[in-house]
Prior knowledge:
Blueprint (H helix, E strand, L loop, with lengths): L1 H34 L3 H17 L6 H13 L3 H12 L12 H4 L3 H4 L7 H29 L12 H10 L10 E7 L5 E7 L10 E7 L14 H5 L4 H9 L3 E5 L16 H12 L2 E10 L2 H12 L6 E5 L20 E8 L5 H14 L3 E10 L9 H13 L8 E6 L10 E6 L15 E8 L5 E9 L8 E8 L2 E7 L1 E8 L10 E5 L2 E6 L5 H11 L8 E6 L2
Parallel strand pairs: 3-4, 3-5, 5-6, 6-7, 7-8, 14-16
Antiparallel strand pairs: 1-2, 2-4, 9-13, 10-15, 11-12, 13-14, 15-18, 16-17
Helix pairs in contact: 1-2, 2-3, 3-4, 4-7, 10-14
Amino acid sequence: MKGYHVLLAFMFSIVSFGQNTYSKLINQADDLLEVHQDEQSKRQAFSLYEKAFKSFPDSITAADLSEISIIASELKEADKAFAYLDRLIKIERAQYGFPGWQNVTNKSALEEYKNLLDDPRWASMMSEAHALKAKFDVNLKEAEEEFYKVKSTKELTSTNGKKLYEEIKAYNPYLPKAKQDYSISFAINDTVKTSFFIHLPKNYSLEKEYPVLFFLHGAVRYNNLQEFQTKELSLGGWNRYYTKYGDLDEVILIFPSGGKKYNWMTSNDGFFMIPAMLREVKKAINVDDNKVFIAGHSNGATGSFSYLMKDSSPFAGFYGFNTQPKVFTGGTFIENIMNRSFINFSTDEDYYYPSNANDSFTAMMNELKADYKEYRYNGFPHWFPEFDESEPAYEILFKDLKERQRKSFNKELTWEFDDNAYGGVDWLTNIRLDTLAQKADWHKERNFKITKWLEYDKAENLQTIEVDKNAFDMPRLSGKAVARYKDNEFRIETSRVKSLSIAISPKMVNLKNKVKVYINGKLCYDEKVDYNTAFMLDNFDKTRDRKTIWINKIDITVK
């Protein structure tokens, strides 16, 4: 037995040595190409790759096959390029879990392999790659169809309002899922598609309601929309602690793919995606409507903050790593945070948003008595999630997630907006702007100055520069409403508002009595409110929400 253990130790040391030497050769080649792009340097790098491949064949990775095939193409070593490509396209799970054939079907392949395009073998190889892709697409579609499959139950058609209310609360058409991980396609419009990756709890049960956490990635200006996503890309790397604590706490994790035009930060064209994806997921998965959250890093953290500012109704809370707390598509109306919460995990060496700005922002939050917390980690750069020292931040996030519930029936709401598409929160809905109206005296702008910023110089050293900028842009006139209710009575103050609606729930008012609505001190409504089944069904179709069920609405024109 002792000899067996010695043998095992010897074998593992050989493997470790082999991988180490393989990596050294590959790194040596990559370092050479990083500095030099002449033919002689490429041939030296190519030789290093081939030496590594020949000496340590069990260590060859898909990424290295891709790299050596590109170098071979550039050197016009067609036979070798095709030999490596033939191996690469057959790999089912290559770099980051993506299939190997994607290396020749993507847009960059035409440039990377331009010296091979006139070779008859290119057409033959592309034919094989497309056949592999077609098979892959069929499997992907079948998995998606299985994901969305539900019981063939009777639709919600009751004409009795009270009965319909109870039916919506009890709605459960769900079936068990065959897999834990799915890549789901998502149509942005008739011609553009993206995807989201969803990771279910290991022992997902259709009888249990589960929390949901969306993670929004950063670098939206430099990302392309992904037709499909992989477990390796979504659950590993910088996202490893989402996976670790999501699995421990049985939280459904959703990873959307955004791009330059369609995303959650720089463009309204893609801002609809997260609520729309949530609606689709609720069709297939038993979600706890009161425990849906958004987190993100960098541009994704700014996206999380933007949903807090513009469209917070479906969500219970928001989190951001290395956040720039600002809306990039319009005004940042900071008092909107009073309806929800935000936790910011910042670092002191962050070029994206400096500590002095975070200090000013936190001071503003404290002044408002907002549900806001900042946890700062000193000595770390913008890419904080890369470091193992970030793990305690995820523990804080998931502890908050476990304890927090959405509160859709708050007795007080405040909402400011400059775009009718985002005119409302919870029961204060369909607010419409009147930018020709006089701004109310109490309607004040909140902002602060940022005087210092961090940036990297040419030597990649972080330095402090002097700036003079506002924290928030205010490109358009805004409207605002402050509302409260008690004992069947709603009192709402408005500024630059043309009209609004009040959504009604039995959890808010006594339906046996009249409901009174005062707008700017004037009585505008004094009647009973009853169930409206058509409205209820339409609202459920739009939201798939079984916890916040609006039975009717009161439409008010501000005079």
